[in-house]
Amino acid sequence: MRGFRIGKKMAACATSFAAVAAVMATAGPAHAATYNVTDNCDVPWINCSYGDLWLFYNSKEIAVQDGYYKSAFTLFYSNVSDHWGTSQYQGSSLTTYRYVFGNGGNGNGQYMKNNAASVQNCARDDNYRVYYNSGYGGTSQYFAKNGPYGDCNITNLISALKNNNASSHFA
Q: What Rg do the C-alpha atoms of the chain give, in angstroms?
């Protein structure tokens, strides 16, 4: 009688194992997709209309010359807790958007986090801060909204933030 119970338990384990194996064999693999964007408004789950905070790859002396942008830049509108990018699961797929410098010029295609040298706030109504750490922590620099005539003054990041920018936030 005792041997019979062990046999039942083993049969139940074998049946359970077979069921789990069948489910795993038919389940599709998890997918991941990564995209590079130069404007956080290009991320589908971020609701915004256009970027107001411009972060440039070069210092202001190089970024804009003779009225032309010579440096690649990234545009942000809204709070960005990590300049590396943002991710979100959509069903079984993980979609990631990495922020890169774009629009031609020096630094085009480079990842934006910890690579910016200057900033231009073109927002009519919003002030911004750029932070040393992700999640709006550490040393920060304040950038006032643009002037009454729509002038967007470009400013170098302070030495503690130059090539050490990790997040930005409405101020």
A: 25
